[in-house]
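User: I'm curious whether this sequence folds into something compact or stays loose and floppy. Could you predict its structure so I can see for myself?
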Amino acid sequence: MGTCRPLLMGIVNVTPDSFFDGGKYHVPDLATEHCETLIENGADIIDIGGESSRPGSQPVDAKEERNRVIPVIRKLCKTLQTPVSVDTTKAEVAQAALDAGATIINDISGFTFDENLAAIAAKYDASVVINHIQGTPADMQQSPEYPNVTNTIKSFFQKQIALLLNEGVSRDKIAVDPGIGFGKTLHHNFTLINQIDTFGELGNPILLGASRKSFIGKTKGLSASERLYPSLAVALVAALKGVSILRVHDVKETWEQIQMIDELFQNKS
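Assistant: Here's the prediction. I'll summarize afterward.
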C-alpha cells in the first residue's frame, strides 16, 4: 500500500448548502460533536469549511464564513489534539482560523483566488493543500477542457509550489490535490484517479478528495447509488497508488477498509 497507510481527513461542512452534509452541522455544538465522532472513528485530521464549493454554488463573504467556522475551530482546538484544517480561499478567514488553533490551510483554488493567502500561510508556518480548480464553483462544470488533464495539473502544481516557496512556505508543509470534480468531466476524474501516482514525482504528499462526489452518480450503473461503496472503492485504489491523505465523509468505513488492507499487506507470508 504505497510506502505507508494514508491519513484520513474527516470532512465537516459548517454550511447550509454543501452537496452531501449541508445543514447538518451548521450549529457549532453539532459540528463539534460530529468532529469528535470522526476522531473516535479514526480521523487523523479534521477539515472544517464554511463555504460550499459544490458545482453552481455562490460565494459567501468573509464575515459570514468566519462566523460559521471560527467558533467550531476554537472549541475543537481547545479540547482536542487532532490537527485542524480550514477549508477556505480567503486570507482573512485563514488568519482567523489559524489564530483559533488551526494548523492547515486547504484552498480549493490552489492559492489563486486571494493573492494574500500564501503570505498568511508563511507567516503562521501553516501546512497547506494546493487544490486544482478550473474556473470557480459557480461555473467550473460548464464544459471543462484540457489538452492533457494530468500534465496540465502537474504544471499548475509546479507553478504554485514555486509561488509558496517564494513566499516562505516550507516544502515539507505542502500537499497537492488534483481537485476531483472541480472543473472536470467524468473522463477527467477517472484519468486523474488512475494516474494519481504521477503527482508523486513532485515530491509532495498527495491528497485525494473524491468522497460522495457527483461523478460517482454519473458512472455507469451507479446513478441510484448513495455513493458510499463507490467512494470506498476510489479510496482503496488511491491508497494502493500511494496517496498520502484521503479526504472523506465516511471515516469509520474508510478506516476499517484501510486497516484491513494494511494488515493483509503486513502479513503476506
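Summary: The longest strand covers residues 7-13. The longest helix spans residues 149-167.
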